[in-house]
Amino acid sequence: MQSFKIFPSLFLLLSSTTFTFASVVWTVNCAPLTIQQTDPILSPGNLSTHVHAVVGGTAFSSLMLGDDAAVDAKATTCDKFIDHSNYWAPQLYQQVGGQFKSVTFTGANMYYKNYTCSYNANASPKGNCVSPRDAQGFPAGLRMIAGNSTRRTLNTTDQWQQAILFENGNYEQYGFATIASQSRVQANVRFPSCWDGVHVDSRDQSHVAYPDPTLGGDTTGGMCPESHPVALISIGAEFGWDITGIWDASTLVFANGDKTGFGFHADFIQGWTNTTALTNSFANCFDSSCPWDSFDAPNGQAPHPAPMVPETAPLAKLNLGLNGLIPQLPGNNPVYAGPMTGIGIGTKSV
Predict the structure, then answer these.
(1) Which of 85, 55, 80 is nearest to 70 (CA)?
(2) Which of 6, 193, 264, 289 is the residue whose CA sits 20 to 30 A from 227?
């Protein structure tokens, strides 16, 4: 096994199951690409407000203009060779005596799921999704963010918060665990899966939404709202960090200064080079090996995630605490030392 981790629970279940019907979920497993103070969605061409851990296509940079900015990558750290998308989240730090050091980022896994259906005013019963569901591949140039970096409190009625969870053994919870009881921190993010059918980006993320709770939907799937009628393939992302030897979770803080976990978030830029193959993958999939058979594996060889470096260097050479202590979080983000109020919600369901 390489240095990054493939988190086992759902992945092992999938790999040990023989499908006799079209699959509704498969994985994209990604090694680290880079850690840098960059965010091409919110801070294009400038340093971002905080440091991010990034996986995916090697075209990642501070300025990714046009629909094919990610598509045109020369390679990817992920195990689906035509997925040149980028996925990123705030980097994790440990606070040591008033200083900070970066925690080892181990990579990310994405669960691609056919759980959402397009809005249908004539559905009977109301909100019923007909199988197979009609979720489609992403429109060219799509960008989206799940979560909110500035949030430090919990509102369980807000779908955008319901979509941000942390692994705690075999369970998920809102917010950090109160003790570091495992060898990793794993943040689970559900990206929006409903699209307005027109815009591929917006500052307030109003171009995308989650399935409509009034129609029986939730952040995992269901029918889209009338305002965002087009169903997209759902992405459930797992971002991981190795915290071996760290026993006090209160010393952990994300790069945006968040110690609660409520401000965790993740970003996505569409980079699939063949979105038709992506859309058709669920109909074509009848066993756990189908994804790499469908997605142009060279010489029929089963792919593996592999660390790489971006084609473009970061805007500036900054000390990000990757090799030792630094006096403050990059971007000088203040640490919010709010109460650790994680709330368990039950069995894991990325």
Answers:
(1) 85
(2) 264
Task: Find, among 294, 220, 251, the residue nearest to 96 by Cα.
Answer: 251
Per-residue pLDDT of the chain (350 residues; tens, 9 = 90+): 333 333 333 333 333 333 334 568 888 999 999 999 999 999 999 999 999 999 999 999 999 999 999 999 999 999 888 999 999 999 999 999 999 999 999 999 999 999 999 999 999 999 999 988 999 999 999 999 999 999 999 999 999 999 999 988 778 899 987 555 578 899 999 999 999 999 999 999 999 999 999 999 999 999 999 999 999 999 999 999 999 988 888 899 999 999 999 999 999 999 999 998 888 888 766 555 555 555 665 555 667 889 999 999 999 999 999 999 999 999 999 999 765 444 555 555 66
Burial of 157 per CB tally in 10 Å (0-12, 13-18, 19+): exposed
Paired tokens of 103 = 């925690």
* Residue 339 phi, psi (nearest 5): -65, 145
Query: Which string of b and e fits 106-139 if b means at least 16 CB within 10 Å?
Result: bbbbbbbbbbbbbbbeeeeeebebeeebebbbbb
DSSP β-bridge partners for residue 28:
110
Residue 257 in contact with residue 68, Cβ under 8 Å? Answer: no
Number of C-beta neighbours around residue 258 at 10 A: 25
Phi and psi (nearest 5°) for 95?
A: -90, 125
Q: Can you read off the two tokens belonging to residue 283? A: 């109909």
Burial class (CB in 10 A: 0-12, 13-18, 19+), 27: buried
CA-to-CA distance for 127 and 253, rounded, in angstroms? Answer: 40
